[in-house]
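SAMPLE LOG
Freezer: B-3
Tube label: C17
Construct: single chain, 235 aa
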Amino acid sequence: MNRRDILLRAMALGVSTGLEGCNYDDPNHPDLADKFLHAMSSWNDRVQAALFSPHTLAPTFKASQITMPPRFNAFYDISQAPVVDQSSYRLALGGQITDKTPWSLSQLQALPQEGQITRLICVEGWRVIGQWAGVPLGQFLRRVGADTRCRYVSFQCADGYYSSIDMESALHPQTLLALQFLGQPLTPAFGAPVRLRIPTKLGFKNPKSLTQLAVTNVYPGGYWEDQGYNWFSGS
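STRUCTURE (predicted):
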């Protein structure tokens, strides 16, 4: 095991050992276990952030290694994936951004694009390899005058999902506003017309069908993060 694996296993052991002393039915301490888990989750976030390097790239793969057929994942059935009108689509901008003019899909498509073949890892344990292309988020943020000294970049989605990432991860060279998947424009099931692709984080940190992007110093939370998932969820 490398140093990171050892650290993560030690963290997991610390959680399980601590919980043995928690009494969920103790009327005098009804929230003890919950408080302990939140404290451990917050500590995990700080450790992961400390381990993160903006110069370390996620692994890339060959075209022959792409997972086929691609796997759909969301908090709803594939038949419920939102269909966004691409002709009227606008990506709204908010927070600490100088130019908040919304962006159409054609404007995003006209920007310089980069591609990658990277792995998406789900918190449930499965993983897939896909081919993505789009606008590097860091370049886009600088183009619209985002204050990159802020701590967070948040996202709202057409399906009601929402999430947020740290600024360092937003500026990572592999973080994309993805417009294509497997060499074709995104389909509704895979986040059309624009989604976040961030291979340095777990799958639930890759929100689909983006409708708004904002830069802020106020913690924005996220759909799963507000239900107890680790917020940083990356490496």
